[in-house]
Amino acid sequence: MTEFRSSLLKLLDERGYIHQLTDAEGLDALASKEIVTGYIGFDATAPSLHVGSLVQIMILRRMQQAGHKPIVLMGGGTTKVGDPTGKDESRKLLTDAEIDANIAGIRRVFERFLTFGEGPTDAVMVNNDDWLSKLEYVPFLRDVGRHFTINRMLTFDSVRLRLDREQPLTFLEFNYMILQAYDFLELSRRHGLRLQLGGSDQWGNIVNGIELTRRIEGTEVFGVTTPLITNPDGSKMGKTAQGAVWLNEEQLSAYDYWQFWRNTDDSSVGKFLRLFTDLPLEEVERLEALPGAGINEAKIVLATEATAMLHGREAASAATDTARATFEQGGSGDNLPTLSVGEGVSLAHALTQLGFTPSNKEARRKIAEGAVRLNDEAVSDAALVVEVGGEPVKLSLGKKRHALLVR
């Protein structure tokens, strides 16, 4: 590890958040002597963020814990354009009302992780639509566009990916990197911003913002990127066969969120404890060193702490108790996800409706393999219609996916 002087970079480094720094020495010196204001942008493409955004949410939390000021930038303006980074096709264009509703849903997540207010280190949430939608096109081209060359823009991965695959890249999306760079400049003017943070795929966009701000304002600003968090097979963390792991409870129950963390691969437990909980590093080291089956204790701690941070300690305890009743005591648990089946539902359809399988075809395959149980009894009839009387029916897929079917 690099030896940093500032509490900010020490904290980020020891918990595994740093992938790249534009000027480590300069940022370390600045953070040692004054409060640094830093931001991350989030486009409002859905009513909730998902686990894939959690590293970015947590690094803003770490900023605040280290005595600095986080800015959450909602991309009300850039959402109208669409970030081409990592995309093979254009995003669906949303209306202003849809974007506003999405921002309202996303704000609730941030209120769990950050303290908002008027104080010097209190977080603020701003919307780049406040300035982007007021820009005049010709003055913007003259004052900002002249600092960007097409030659360099064509080298960005977000652009080359589309061109190499012969996928259309609209002029609208091509402008996204300029607008994101302009956000950095505007935030430095409005809020004294000195730092942009983001995932490793945002490195080029962050560097653009730094260079634009230095050229126009002469301000010394900095960038930090976080490592890409992947599963052991190389896939992005947070993507499951059942879909995205959403952070809002309307999209995913606290119990299912707890289960996501409980199912962490053994090799990732220590890393996730550092990144996604506030546990002291000494405790993290103890947990990740537990021998043999003891790693399951660490996974339960990870699941409980991560769930408590998002959904509250009571919801985390309820999820833990439900899991214990389900797995250790053979019960059904009171907080399992439920599916109302009315007069009845085919077993395959129930599995798909619950998100246990991505399709009815996959559900029938799982049934044929003997992986599905009703009230802990294996079933093999893929055409079975499940009818529910007065008592709920417990539906299980494998050892880790359980739900209650109710009338």
UniProtKB/TrEMBL annotation:
Residues annotated as binding L-tyrosine: 39, 176, 180
Record: residues binding ATP: 239
Top-level EC class as recorded in UniProt: ligase
Catalytic reactions on record: tRNA(Tyr) + L-tyrosine + ATP = L-tyrosyl-tRNA(Tyr) + AMP + diphosphate + H(+)
Chain ranges of the Tyrosine--tRNA ligase SYY-like C-terminal domain: 334-387
Residue positions of motif 'HIGH' region: 44-53
Function per UniProt: Catalyzes the attachment of tyrosine to tRNA(Tyr) in a two-step reaction: tyrosine is first activated by ATP to form Tyr-AMP and then transferred to the acceptor end of tRNA(Tyr).
EC number, as in UniProt: 6.1.1.1
InterPro entries membership: aa-tRNA-synth_Ic, Rossmann-like_a/b/a_fold, S4_RNA-bd_sf, SYY-like_C, Tyr-tRNA-ligase, Tyr-tRNA-ligase_bac-type, Tyr-tRNA-ligase_bac_1
Chief site of localization: cytoplasm
Motif ('KMSKS' region): 236-240
Protein name (record): Tyrosine--tRNA ligase
Keywords recorded for this protein, A-Z: Aminoacyl-tRNA synthetase, ATP-binding, Cytoplasm, Ligase, Nucleotide-binding, Protein biosynthesis, RNA-binding
GO molecular function: tyrosine-tRNA ligase activity
Source species of the chain: Sphingomonas sediminicola
Oligomeric and partner information: Homodimer.
SUPFAM superfamilies: Alpha-L RNA-binding motif, Nucleotidylyl transferase
Subcellular location as annotated: Cytoplasm
One protein family per Pfam: SYY_C-terminal
Similarity annotation: Belongs to the class-I aminoacyl-tRNA synthetase family. TyrS type 1 subfamily.
Aminoacyl-tRNA synthetase in keyword set: yes
